[in-house]
Amino acid sequence: MEDLDTIKAKVKKLNQQATALKMDLHDLSEDLPTGWERIMEVAQKAYDAHAALIEARKALSAAGG
Q1: pLDDT digit string, tens, across residues 41-55
Q2: What is the CATH number of the domain that holds 28?
């Protein structure tokens, strides 16, 4: 089991990744229809990052953080 500081660091890193991927999705949407073929790829990465972030936040909460 991970200690609280390790989980907090993981949440921080995942939050940064999720935010960057959210911005990638935002930028892609602004440029549409240019790059339309990347919609699924970018959306899947953003979805996966946010799912990992939510799970890490649950682990942090369960650990008392």
Answers
A1: 999 999 999 999 999
A2: 1.10.287.660
